[in-house]
Design a protein that fits this description.
- With 119 residues, the chain is mainly α.
- It is built from five helices and no strands.
- It has one domain.
- Helix content is 57%, strand content 0%.
- The termini are far apart.
- It comes from Nonomuraea composti.
Length: 119
C-alpha cells in the first residue's frame, strides 16, 4: 500500500473545497466525508503548516484540474513528512482503514466491525 497515493483523492478534495485555509478548517471535521477526511489527514501531516506546506497547498488550490505538477508537489511533500516520521505513515494509513460504501450497510476494511443499521 502506498499511503501517499491513497491519501491524494482525500487531500486534494479538501484543498479543492477549502483552499489554503484547509489547515485551519475545523467545522465539519467530525463528518466522514471525503473532504473532511482529507482535511484531517492534511492537518495530521502538516499540523498548522509551515510556509512550505502552505505554499504547496496554495499551488494545488490555484491549479487547474489537469495540472498534475501541483499534485505531484503535494504528494512529494507528504512523502517527505512520512520519511521524517515513519509513525506518521502508519497513523495516516489507519485514518484510511475504515471506508464507508454507499448503500444500506457500512463496510469496514482492516478488521473493524460496524453494526448494520436499521436491520
Amino acid at each position: 500500500m502506498d499511503t501517499a497515493d491513497d491519501v491524494m483523492p482525500f487531500v486534494t478534495a479538501a484543498i479543492d473545497a477549502y483552499g489554503t485555509g484547509v489547515l485551519a478548517k475545523t467545522s465539519e471535521l467530525a463528518a466522514d466525508t471525503e473532504v473532511a477526511r482529507g482535511s484531517r489527514i492534511l492537518q495530521r501531516v502538516f499540523g498548522r503548516g509551515d510556509e512550505r506546506a502552505h505554499g504547496v497547498i496554495g499551488r494545488v488550490a490555484g491549479a487547474k484540474p489537469d495540472d498534475e505538477s501541483g499534485r505531484a508537489a503535494l504528494r512529494s511533500a507528504i512523502m517527505e513528512e512520512f520519511r521524517a516520521d515513519p509513525l506518521l505513515r502508519r497513523e495516516v494509513a489507519a485514518m484510511l482503514a475504515r471506508v464507508t460504501v454507499t448503500g444500506e450497510r457500512p463496510v469496514a476494511v482492516g478488521g473493524e466491525h460496524l453494526a448494520e443499521s436499521g436491520h
